[in-house]
């Protein structure tokens, strides 16, 4: 029996580093919003359902200007995001149907996700239950101490730059996020800040997460320079 797969696409970010009044996911890239490209990749792939998570008050805009305008048929729900990224993911998980098998969590500001990357991730998650897309770093990475001096230099061959999608079995990611939301105040008091979904599974479920090769083009549009790089990739 075929697996049921759902993508949560996050488009609730404020994009403060973009220096624009328009959120980065709605900026135009070759006459289409940045968000269009990742949704199109999921629409054209094996993914069954898409949950689109947007900023408060943007639901109707996304319904008319994104979903209906570009005739996306797999978007089953448009839900409101939260204060932090992990709140938005938690809201997206709540909208997933209970018989889902695998969940792909993706940043809507990463327009260059491909079907090939999605297929690699699906293949790995079936065994590992948790995997993240990324690429080995090209530069040497230094870990600093609290005074701004180099504390250590990890072996470059073992350091990866993590991208999205991050892919999990539905039961695993739902359980991890339930624990996170119920214990978020305790985490804050300990000075632990959640920056990606794999971290939630690692911390609360004590599970190892498999690394899956993505692409150096699978960049996140964060600054004005990124938009220029993205335009050159499209050309």
Characterize the structure shown.
This protein has 235 residues and is an alpha/beta fold. It has one domain (5-234): Spore Coat Polysaccharide Biosynthesis Protein SpsA, Chain A (Alpha-Beta Complex). It is built from 7 helices and 11 strands. Strands 5-4-1-6-10-7-11 form a 7-stranded mixed sheet, with helices on both faces. Helix 2 links the parallel strand 4 (49-54) and strand 5 (75-80). Helix 3 (85-94) packs antiparallel against helix 5 and helix 5 crosses helix 6 (197-205). The protein is globular. It starts with a strand and ends with a helix.
CATH class: Alpha Beta
Distance between the termini: 40 Å
Helix-strand category = alpha/beta
CATH architecture name: Alpha-Beta Complex
Task: Enter the CATH topology name.
Answer: Spore Coat Polysaccharide Biosynthesis Protein SpsA, Chain A
Main sheet record: 7 strands, mixed
Q: Give the SSE string.
A: EEEHEHEHEHEEEEHHEH
Strand order of the largest sheet: 5-4-1-6-10-7-11
The helix count comes to 7
Rough shape? Answer: globular
Average pLDDT confidence is 93
Total domain modules: 1
- Uncertain ranges: none
What is the CATH superfamily classification? Answer: Spore Coat Polysaccharide Biosynthesis Protein SpsA, Chain A
């Amino acid at each position: 029996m075929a697996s049921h797969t759902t993508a949560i696409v996050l488009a609730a970010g404020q994009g403060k580093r973009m220096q624009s009044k328009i959120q980065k996911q709605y900026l135009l890239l070759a006459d289409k919003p940045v968000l269009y490209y990742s949704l199109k990749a999921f629409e054209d792939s094996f993914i069954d359902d898409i949950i689109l998570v947007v900023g408060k008050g943007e639901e109707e805009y996304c319904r008319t200007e994104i979903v209906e305008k570009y005739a996306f048929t797999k978007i089953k729900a448009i839900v409101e995001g939260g204060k932090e990224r992990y709140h938005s993911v938690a809201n997206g998980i709540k909208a997933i149907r209970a018989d889902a098998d695998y969940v792909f969590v993706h940043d809507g500001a990463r327009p260059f996700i491909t079907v090939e990357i999605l297929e690699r991730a699906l293949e790995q998650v079936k065994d590992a239950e948790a995997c993240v897309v990324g690429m080995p770093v090209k530069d040497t990475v230094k870990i600093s101490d609290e005074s701004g001096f180099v504390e250590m230099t990890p072996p470059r061959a073992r350091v990866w730059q993590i991208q999205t999608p991050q892919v999990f079995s539905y039961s695993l990611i739902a359980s991890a996020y339930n624990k996170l939301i119920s214990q978020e105040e305790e985490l804050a008091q300990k000075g632990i800040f959640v920056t990606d979904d794999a971290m939630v599974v690692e911390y609360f479920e004590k599970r190892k997460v498999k690394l899956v090769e993505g692409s150096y083009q699978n960049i996140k549009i964060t600054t004005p320079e990124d938009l220029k790089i993205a335009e050159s990739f499209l050309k």
